[in-house]
Write a structure and sequence with these properties.
Length: 384
């Protein structure tokens, strides 16, 4: 099959489809955990554990494959990974046994993580990774709108299994897109081939994003449940999720437009703080308007901040290996989030999630202070 360029329309389209499928947890986590509680009758800790197993599988695959990114055929890995995930979710749709669902969640996570590592590593090797990642984020926003237009109604009429049917279809579409048009990176430069170890700033950037991902998953997993348990009403909470998906259309394109106007380091320092504030409002609000406003904006903060982080890390580590580990840096935090969030809620109530978010925000801000200033980045690029 002919090689597809990253800069071609076909190549970019395939990467955007793959990004949407691989990042399905970022869109679906509230409904995912809520469905496991409401339709499968699992308690919050069990529901969180199933989502955690999927995310942990993705982390494992990403950690193993990211260092080998430049030695693997991205098209083959992405195609097989998404195809295996589609099969796993199709089997999950036919089971209600916790043990079987746990195994299928873990295996589907491994397959998805492998495919997503190839996707993000390839995006990082594009001419303008910040812009292409912003385009992928915009596609994820459109996917979220479609997801919330279809899935809640399907769950109401067909039951919890409908969620896994939708997941299977999404993964199958991504496998087909990868087979037909997944692009290949250009040959690496001498500087990229010479880069063997990640520097301290790269590791700190990875750690900071992982902290934000943990807050994202911990809060997002129970966003729907806290609204329901505060008796805001199913229709009102459903409307918030729709509003959230509409708001999520904006942050990635906005981050792309502001690439050369806002400093990435400044955005990264502000992102965790705003995320923690929104978590506190969501988990403690007794008035629907406050809950709705904070919930609608919550995921947008992560999308906007992560786009700037992706572009900055692509400049600091141009080989693509660090950003092939994007599923690990996102999902290492996210893998712990549903289980940790469920445990905290079970032990101390929803308000305690705000305290945990504040602590993690402080850690993330510290990590991001270790990133180079614009003057230091320019000096490094001049030396390269």
């Amino acid at each position: 099959m002919a090689t597809t360029s990253i800069e071609s329309r076909r190549g970019r389209a395939a990467l955007m489809v793959a990004h949407c499928a691989g990042m399905v947890d970022l869109v679906a986590l509230p409904v995912w955990v809520g469905t496991l509680i409401a339709h499968y009758r699992f308690d919050p800790q069990q529901a969180g554990l199933l989502a955690t197993l999927f995310l942990a599988g993705a982390v494992l695959a990403s950690v193993l494959l990211a260092p080998r990114f430049n030695r693997l055929n991205g098209r083959i890995v992405a195609t097989l990974g998404f195809a295996a995930a589609a099969a796993g979710f199709a089997l999950a749709a036919g089971s209600r046994d916790f043990g079987t669902l746990a195994l299928l969640h873990a295996l589907s996570g491994v397959a998805t993580g492998a495919a997503l590592s190839m996707t993000h590593g390839t995006i990082a090797r594009s001419v303008r990774p910040h812009r292409l990642f912003a385009m992928a984020g915009a596609a994820l926003g459109v996917f979220a709108v479609l997801f919330y237009a279809v899935v809640p109604q399907s769950l109401a009429t067909a039951g919890g299994a409908a969620l896994f049917v939708v997941f299977g279809i999404v993964m199958a579409v991504a496998a087909l897109a990868a087979l037909v048009a997944f692009p290949s990176p250009a040959a690496r430069s001498q500087a990229e081939r010479a880069a063997v170890h990640f520097g301290t700033p790269v590791w700190c950037g990875i750690a900071g994003i992982a902290c934000m991902a943990l807050v994202q998953a911990m809060t997002f997993s129970f966003l729907e449940r806290v609204g329901s348990d505060r008796y805001f009403g199913a229709a009102a909470v459903g409307g918030v999720l729709v509003a959230l998906s509409l708001v999520n259309l904006l942050p990635a394109p906005l981050a792309g437009l502001l690439e050369r106007h806002w400093r990435a380091r400044t955005v990264l320092l502000a992102g965790p703080v705003l995320q923690a504030v929104l978590t506190a409002v969501i988990m403690n609000a007794t008035v629907f308007a406050a809950y709705a406003a904070a919930a609608s904006l919550f995921a947008a903060v992560m999308i906007f901040t992560h786009t700037f982080a992706f572009g900055l890390l692509a400049r600091l580590e141009p080989s693509g290996r660090a950003l092939a580990a994007t599923p690990a840096m996102m999902m290492a935090g996210a893998a712990i989030g549903p289980l940790l969030g469920g445990t905290i809620v079970k032990a101390a109530g929803y308000g305690s999630l705000a305290v945990a978010a504040a602590v993690l925000a402080a850690v993330a801000v510290f990590c991001f202070t270790r990133l180079p200033t614009p003057a230091q980045t320019a000096a490094q690029e001049a030396l390269a």
